[in-house]
Amino acid sequence: MKFADTLARPAVQALAASKIREVANAGIGRPGVLPFWFGEPDTVTPDFICQEGIASLRAGETFYTHNLGIAPLREALAGYVARLHGACGTENLAVTNSGMNALALVQQALIAPADRVVVVTPVWPNLVEGPKILGAQVCTVALDFGAAGWTLDVQRLLDALTPQTRLLIVNSPNNPTGWTMPRAQQQVVMEHCRKQGIWILADDAYERLYFDGEPGRSVAPSFLDISTWEDRVVSVNTFSKSWQMTGWRLGWIAAPQPLIDDLAKLIEFNTSCAPGFVQRAGVRAVTEGEAAVASFVARLKSNRDFLIERLNALPQVQAVAPPGAMYAFFKVQGVHDSLAFCKRLVTEFDLGLAPGAAFGPEGEGFIRWCFAATEDKLADGVQRLARGLQTV
Ligand SMILES: Cc1ncc(COP(=O)(O)O)c(C=O)c1O
Q1: Can you give the pTM of this predicted structure?
Q2: Distance 127 CA to ligand 1 centre (A)
Q3: For ligand 1, is residue 178 a contact (CB within 6 Å)?
C-alpha cells in the first residue's frame, strides 16, 4: 500500500487546523499559565443544573433516547424559544449533542458539493471550515473595524448573496468581535434571502450574552423574530454559553418542521441522540435558569468594562467594548503575525490568548481575550500583556 492510499479525501486534507488550538497546545499543562484562549468561563456549571444530571444518573437514565430529544426537553425548549422569539412548537425543535453538532447537522442537511455558502467574518473558524467538509465554495464578507467597533456594510453582503447562493451563515452576537447584527440589517437581509431563495443559518450561541438588551431580559435580535416557519431560516443554539455548560455537550436546532423530519434521520446516523441525563440537566437549565443567566450576563458586563478600560490604557492597544458575547477583540499596533505573537505570550509570559488570524485574514493584527474570568486574573493578564508588548 502506498502512503497516498491512507490519506483522507482532499476536502478534509485541505481543512485549516484551528490556530486557537495551536496556541493552546503550546501552553496547556504549563504551570502558572493564565488561559483566556477558549470561549468558556472559569466557573463550573451552576449547582442546581449539575444536581439534575446527577439525580438522572442515580435514577438509572443511562439509555438511548429519542433521536430528536426527550419530550420534556423539547417542550421546555418550545416554551423558551416562544418566550424569546415568538411561536415555536416541539415540531420545530431537534436536540443535539452541542451547538457544534447542531451546526454540522444543519450543514449536512442543506449543503451539497459545490454549493455557494456566504459567511460573515471574522468569525469562529468552525463556521468557515465546516461547509468545506461537504465540498461547499465558501465566500466571506468581512466586517469593518473603526472607532465605533465592528460594523457590517450590508450592501456588500447583499452583493455577495447572489441567486446561486445556497446558504448564508451569520453568527450574531459574533465570536470573536461581539458584533451584533442590528434589526434593520436583519430585515434587509431577510427580504433579500426570501426573494433569492437563500437559506439563513443563524448561529445564536451568544444570543443571551447581550449587554444592550432590556433590563432583566438579555436577548439579542434574532432572525427568528422576523421570520415564520415558512421561511428558510434555521437557528442553532447551545447550552454551553448561556448556562455555562460547555463540557456537557448539549445544543438544539430550531427549524421549519419538514427540515426537522430529515434532521431526525441525520441525527440517527451521527450521534443517534444526546445523553438522557445531560438532557435532564438541560430541562432544569431552561425552566429554572433565568436568574443564573442574568447574574452571568451581569458578571460578563462588569468584566468587559474592567478589561476594556485596562487594555486601552496600554499605548499600543485599541479596544472597543463589544455589545455581546464574552470576548475582547482588540487591535495591537506592531503585531503583524498574531499567531507567532500569541505563541510567544504563552511560552515567555504564561498568557494564553487567541490569535486574531484564527478568525480570518481580516482578524490579523488583533487578539481575542475571553473575559469570563475573575478581575484578579484579568488584571494579572493585562500586566503580562504589557510586558509582552514591550518586546514588540
Ligand atoms: C459562534 C459559536 N457557535 C457555536 C459554538 C458551539 O458551542 P458548543 O459546541 O460548545 O455548543 C461556539 C463555541 O465556542 C461558538 O463560539
Answers
A1: 0.96
A2: 9
A3: no
Check residue 385 and give its pLDDT.
98
In short, whether 174's Cβ falls inside 6 Å of ligand 1 is: no
Whether residue 39 has its Cβ less than 6 Å from ligand 1: yes
For the beta carbon of residue 204, count every other beta carbon within 10 angstroms.
26
370, β-bridge pairs: 327
Contacts of 126 (CB under 8 A, 6+ apart): 18, 100, 103
CATH number, domain 49-289: 3.40.640.10
β-bridge pairing 251-254 and 149-151 = unpaired
Average pLDDT, consecutive stretches of 10 residues, N- to C-terminus, the chain (392 residues): 82 93 91 94 96 98 98 98 97 98 98 98 96 97 93 98 98 98 97 98 98 84 97 98 98 98 98 98 98 96 98 96 97 96 96 97 97 97 97 90
Which residue among 100, 169, 278, 368 is best mutated to probe the pocket of ligand 1, counting the most ligand atoms within 8 A of its Cβ?
100
The CA angle 296-177-247, to the nearest 5 degrees, is 45
CATH superfamily of 3-45+291-389: Aspartate Aminotransferase, domain 1 (3.90.1150.10)
Q: Residue 1: its pLDDT value, please?
A: 61
Q: Given ligand 1 and candidates 96, 129, 240, which is best to mutate, with the most ligand atoms within 8 Å of its CB?
A: 240
Model pLDDT, residue 214? 77
**124 Cβ closer than 6 Å to some ligand 1 atom:** yes
Distance from CA of residue 183 to its chain's centroid? 19
